[in-house]
Structure to design on (300 residues):
């Protein structure tokens, strides 16, 4: 199947490569000509503009948008609106607010353009392991691009989860849960690190993954982080960004009167990390770097 990919950052480039390896034809664009050339060298068809991408794609077109949420995504969709035709499918795989996705879907539908909001999880490991995909929007549009989705995902790793906005809502809550899980691991390792015992935290991470009830992929990444950075994570500052989805999850919980103290406090702990260089925040920063390639602030 043929797909246009807009945005060749750490996610878009790896997704394009996985689709290419899976036998799909990729037409790729990025503002960075170097990024386009790099993907063209491995077999993608590189283009220099959105207009050229639309021209190169067979109708009905499928175009995946993998650029930062907010203004970049909004501008890309508006630029494409003037170029695509009724029956074409636009897919937003970024971390957009589900309310924006509902609005964009309704607006594009007036022109006969299908819009799918695809919550995408997998980070920098997605190329190797596949991406978990939570997709909202018209079911008929999902069915048309399902061959692409099943190639991107691991077995049983993609689902149509509901109408427009549902995909990004599911990803929003997914990331809110992630906040709570990271906070729990961060605090637990902080207690171990501060104890009277000289624990090897890489070994503890490995041990807990052997049948314990707290075993997880995040613990596997903790083992990798401690192996690279050492027990004290000395080179990493305890500064943890929040990319929006955790805030939106807490705000939605408040709007719906759903008690979510763990998720709320994990968000507030990230705010506190910007004033205090605490060890639990170092752990969270290291884990976010391992699974998502999120930048860490290093000590100088």
């Amino acid at each position: 199947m043929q797909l246009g990919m807009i945005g060749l950052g750490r996610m878009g480039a790896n997704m394009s490569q996985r689709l290419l390896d899976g036998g799909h034809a990729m037409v790729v664009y990025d503002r960075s000509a170097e990024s386009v050339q790099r993907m063209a060298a491995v077999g993608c068809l590189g283009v220099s503009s959105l207009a050229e991408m639309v021209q190169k794609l067979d109708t009905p077109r499928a175009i995946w948008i993998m650029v930062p949420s907010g203004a970049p995504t909004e501008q890309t969709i508006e630029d494409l609106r003037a170029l695509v035709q009724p029956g074409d499918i636009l897919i937003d795989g970024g971390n957009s607010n589900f309310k924006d996705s509902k609005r964009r879907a309704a607006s594009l539908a007036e022109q006969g353009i299908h819009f799918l909001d695809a919550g995408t999880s997998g980070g920098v490991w997605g190329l190797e392991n596949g991406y978990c995909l939570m997709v909202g929007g018209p079911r008929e549009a999902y069915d048309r691009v399902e061959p692409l989705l099943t190639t991107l995902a691991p077995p049983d790793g993609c689902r149509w989860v509901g109408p427009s906005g549902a995909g990004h809502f599911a990803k929003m809550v997914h990331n809110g849960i992630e906040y709570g899980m990271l906070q729990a691991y961060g605090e637990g390792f902080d207690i171990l690190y501060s104890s009277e015992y000289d624990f090897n935290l890489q070994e503890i991470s490995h041990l807990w993954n052997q049948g314990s009830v707290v075993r997880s992929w995040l613990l596997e990444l903790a083992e990798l982080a401690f192996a690279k950075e050492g027990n004290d994570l000395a080179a990493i500052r305890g500064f943890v960004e929040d990319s929006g989805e955790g805030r939106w999850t807490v705000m939605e919980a408040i709007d719906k009167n759903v008690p979510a103290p763990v998720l709320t406090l994990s968000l507030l702990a990230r705010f506190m990390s910007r004033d205090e260089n605490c060890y639990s925040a170092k752990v969270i920063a290291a884990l976010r770097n391992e699974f998502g390639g999120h930048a860490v602030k290093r000590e100088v």
Notes: The CA atoms of residues 38 and 46 lie 9 Å apart. The first strand starts at residue 2 and ends at 6. DSSP finds 13 helices and eight strands in the chain.
